[in-house]
Amino acid sequence: MIFETDRLFVRQLQESDQSAYFDMMSNPNVMRPIPRNVMTEEESNAHLYKFLNTEHTTSDTKVWAIELKEENEFIGLCAFLKNNENDDEIGYRLREKYWGVGYGTEITKGLIDFGFKHLDTDLITADVYVNNLKSVKILEKFFKRDIEFFNTEDKCTDRRYKLTRKEWL
After folding, report:
1. 152 domain-assigned
2. What is the reported pTM?
3. Contacts of 2 (CB under 8 A, 6+ apart)
């Protein structure tokens, strides 16, 4: 286990996550707000296996599973990575059937705590597609707006949020 929140465990991804991972990555309602194309089963499996084989202690990209404590159920993924300015950035994605019950807010707070307390970072950022209103609402609970920019990879306008250790602690 990497860390836990009240209702969630964050752990390494596992091969046994494959079916639930595909459920998330093939769902247009999950992928559209990012915005990304849905994945085929083959693409989803390749995406998962890329992260299964990443050395999390040395890599700048750390992608983990989010699991419900009570049910031991894979509900999504979360990550620490580096943005285009080499700052620490968090991200998360949840399976649609787990939307609307506070898991997005809970995992965002957990990632922030983990980043400041265990990864020893002084700044955490989060980028979001400006039309992804549910994620915007979550990020605005914790972060300050920074800049808006055109994301050439996803072909959309993103907004960057920032939070310093001093503001958090």
Report:
1. no
2. 0.94
3. 10, 11, 12, 64, 114
What CATH number is attached to the domain comprising 75?
3.40.630.30
Q: Is 144 helix (H, G, I), strand (E, B) or coil?
A: strand
Q: Which amino acid belongs to residue 84?
A: N
Residue 39 within a domain: yes
Could you tell me how far CA 83 lies from the centroid of its own chain? 13
- pLDDT, tens digit, 9 for 90 and up, residues 7-45: 999 999 999 999 999 999 999 999 999 999 999 999 999
DSSP string, 13-52: --GGGHHHHHHHHT-HHHHTTTT-----HHHHHHHHHHHH
Number of structural domains (the chain) is: 1
Degrees, nearest 5: CA angle 13-19-25: 80
Q: What are the structure tokens assigned to 18, written together?
A: 């494959």
CA distances from 14 to 10, 17, 34 (A): 12, 5, 24
Residue 164 maps to a domain: no
* Cα separation, 168 vs 123, whole angstroms: 10
The answer to whether residue 139 sits within a structural domain is no
Q: What is the pLDDT of residue 169?
A: 83
Q: Residue 62: give the domain boundaries.
A: 3-124
